[in-house]
Specification:
three-stranded antiparallel β-sheet; 2 domains; 21% strand; binds S-adenosylmethionine; 12 helices; globular
Length: 365
């Protein structure tokens, strides 16, 4: 969907994306502001800041307001300086956003800037400037949420995430990309988007599902191997016509970031108008339903660790990479209680049964 008006009506899948953003930022802001003097929220495709509701009233917040409110209304005291950069290419949308922001009280440790410009040009000049000054980008959360796919070059994503404390959340517009795959005039755009020409191999694949899987895995591989992001996840947004609207790719070098994005995803209520699924691991699809499937998680854990003795941190990382959280209460505790026991605690500084502090060593029987 490419929209001409200044603001437009919100769609269900956008609300889901906003719910993820909101929940993630509420978790990210206190963690990052505890350890850093200054943090950045960069909204690369900020939009006008509001959406029309069902009655065509502009009452629903867009991403800049979601981010700003997550910070200024946070129930914890956020001590870091928090800088919001809202980048938006269109003049009318920038003006609309500025007028909204003017009426908002901003705490002293926060400030924002609305930049009327293109995302790639703005970020490239900022990074060039920092390179010249031999400085690094402050720890940042960068939200990259375009309408299409031509203005988000992979080389720029790579430059951003070379800063190990920067995280990205990218809307990867597969509904547009899939149509471009066979068009010769789009090859340059796709080369830039994916940072490789390897995507052309998709033309030998005839089955649409396999093509989709190829592209999603290629982008993931690029983020992991080229951009060297330690943890990459993606979530698929399927609309009510059972079509993939987009993938939400998330990249972080921080295990805590991975934990929080998983938790954020599980809290989004699919409401039946869309479906979220996680195919980060092509052999295992996790559908986001109101309750995580802990039977599936137990199977995955047992398959991975049966007969082994491992530190609890290793299980934690495996669980997070598999798209889950809360394995201690839901998996380890019942396994320890089972008769016969399914796990044995070899070592632990714990004071209570059923708890598994970081130094615990667990044997899977
Ligand atoms: C999907 S909308 C963003 C919605 C917003 N992130 C939200 O969630 O509320 C994409 C926005 O990017 C703007 N845009 C398009 N090309 C751009 C570019 N190259 N750089 C920055 N903004 C751009 C469009 O005008 C539009 O407002």
């Amino acid at each position: 969907m490419v929209v001409k008006e200044t603001i437009w009506k919100i769609e269900a899948h956008t609300q889901a994306k906003h719910a993820v953003l909101d929940r993630y930022l509420k978790a990210w802001l206190p963690i990052m502001s505890k350890w850093n003097g200054r943090i950045l929220y960069i909204d690369g495709f900020a939009g006008p800041g509001k959406y029309f509701d069902e009655e065509n009233l502009p009452t629903i917040d867009g991403s800049p307001l979601i981010a700003l409110n997550a910070a200024r209304k946070h129930k914890l005291q956020l001590n870091a300086e928090i800088v919001f950069l809202f980048i938006e290419a269109r003049h009318d949308r920038c003006e609309y956003l500025k007028s909204l922001l003017e009426s908002i009280d901003i705490p002293k440790n926060m400030r924002y800037e609305v930049i009327e410009s293109k995302f790639d040009e703005t970020l490239s000049s900022l990074l060039d400037y920092l390179d010249e000054q031999k400085k690094r980008l402050a720890p940042a959360f960068v939200f990259i949420d375009p309408f299409g796919y031509s203005d988000t070059p992979f080389s720029l994503i790579k430059r951003i995430t070379e800063n190990k404390k920067c995280e990205v959340l990218i809307t990867f517009m597969y509904s547009f990309i899939k149509r471009a795959l066979t068009k010769s005039d789009q090859e340059g755009h796709l080369d830039r988007l994916l940072g490789t020409q390897d995507w052309r191999k998709v033309r030998n694949i005839n089955i649409p599902l396999k093509r989709k899987e190829f592209i999603q895995q290629l982008y993931k591989k690029q983020l992991e191997e080229e951009a060297k992001i330690k943890y990459v996840r993606f979530f698929e947004m399927i609309n009510k016509f059972n079509q993939t609207e987009y993938f939400l790719f998330f990249g972080t070098n921080n295990l805590e970031g991975l934990r929080q994005i998983n938790a954020a995803m599980w809290k989004v209520d699919p409401k039946g108008t869309f479906q979220f699924s996680d195919r980060t691991n092509p052999n295992q699809t996790v559908l986001f339903t109101p309750e995580p499937d802990y039977n599936l998680l137990k199977k995955l854990i047992v398959r991975e660790f049966r007969g082994k003795t491992v530190p609890v941190e290793e299980i934690d990382e495996f669980v997070l990479i598999s798209g889950f959280t809360h394995f201690k209460r839901n998996i380890l505790k019942p396994m320890e209680k089972a008769k016969p026991h399914e796990i044995e605690i070899i070592e632990s500084s714990r004071e209570r049964k059923g708890t598994y502090p970081p130094d615990s060593l667990i044997k899977f029987l």
